[in-house]
Specification:
The relative contact order is 0.12. This protein has three domains: 200 residues, 3-Layer(bba) Sandwich (FAD/NAD(P)-binding domain); 111 residues, FAD/NAD(P)-binding domain (3-Layer(bba) Sandwich), CATH 3.50.50; 105 residues, Enolase-like, domain 1, CATH 3.30.390.30. It contains 13 helices and 22 strands. The strands form five sheets. Strands 1, 2, 3, 4, 5, 6 and 17 form a seven-stranded mixed sheet that branches. The protein has a five-stranded parallel sheet with strand order 8-15-9-10-11.
Length: 453
Amino acid sequence: MTNSVYDYDLVVVGAGSGGVRAARMAAARGARVAVAEEGRLGGTCVNVGCVPKKLMVYAAQFADAFDDAGGFGWKSSAPAFSWPDLIAAKDDEIARLNGVYRRLLDGSGVEIVEGRASLADRHTIVIGDTHCTTEAVLIATGGRPFVPGVPGAELGIVSDAVFTLPDLPPRIGIIGGGYIAVEFAGIMRGLGAEVSLIYRGPLFLRGFDDDVRATLAGEMVKRGINLCFNMEVERLEELIGDGIRVCGPTGDEIDSDLVLWATGRVPNTADLGLEALGVELDGNGAVVVNEYSETTLPGIYAIGDCTDRMALTPVAIGEAMALVETLNGNPTAMNYDNIPTAVFSRPQVGMVGLTEDKARAAGHEIRIFRSTFRPMLNTLSGRDEHTMMKLVVDRISDRVLGVHMVGPDAGEIMQGFAVALKCGATKAQFDATVGIHPTAAEEFVTMREPVEE
């Protein structure tokens, strides 16, 4: 890969999870690598995504633990929650991780160049007043929050800003129906805010299994979250005194102290100079790539959320690993089959494989196994919350096509079943597996009777 004609063999634009992994692994193979980053190292996931959000999920879960403790004999007064203390602790952890990423890059021999990068030509990168040349370029600039262009949109904030709020708002309106909206609804409600989730469709989490979506909606209502489905947002208005009003076209109105736009993310590809060089972008601004992450201009590559594939941190890392193999003469494509995912809602969602609808659409003749039950914890706590588990099985081959769950620790449980689906596990093999008792996860290997069609 090394070519002494250029300053570097590879310049990575963006130091998120995918970009950092690609840079480190390429350097480990002997390449001369630089990473350009205008913000903090670690990208969305570390700074304003997965990591701080999960820390907030943990904080919200303590509310359940305190409530449930009385059923197990613990007697105490209700504790007080401090939002500033949570944010300060979160900031300390993110700063620590920023340092970890810097040490990883430094230790790998990767040069970190701070500043916004753009491409002047196929081999030239401009970073501020600095120009450098490179054999190959990797675009790993991630995504950014999308805000619809409705009147008053500027009155709301995006998810990035949640992590620096000075105080917890007493009332929050969350607009959107994806995982970001659902997760923040659970977090804010768990920490004590009144929450309204506003979505234009009939049910959130489009693309997830319908039983998962319906089960989660029911459980969120039990937690006191106001679900406002089928509500288009026409405008935001500032109320006299304090507050923001979300207005729909049919007279629907939701008043809050804070409005959060959680209406999706778009690729962060503006002003990189890509289109001028002939690098194709799709209508959403995503970089168009082939199976080896190469753009329409040979030698320029893209991975992660700036492409229109799967916007998940482990996927970006997997794409990075495949790309390094490709750059070293071993063309390798990322395999996107049976990639598990979790939504850190309250309760959690975990899934891997096909939904029931997607299995049918793909032509499979299927059997459905489904179980809904009260977790053992809730038998003494008295909490009215149920877990739902579901298997989608091919009737002909007996292969398990999809595993779906709503309930505590769904993300942790799903990781092991993702391995099983990667190995092509059948329902008979699930049935032959001895469960761990008493756990919720054992239900996946004890469901015997399919749902009546």
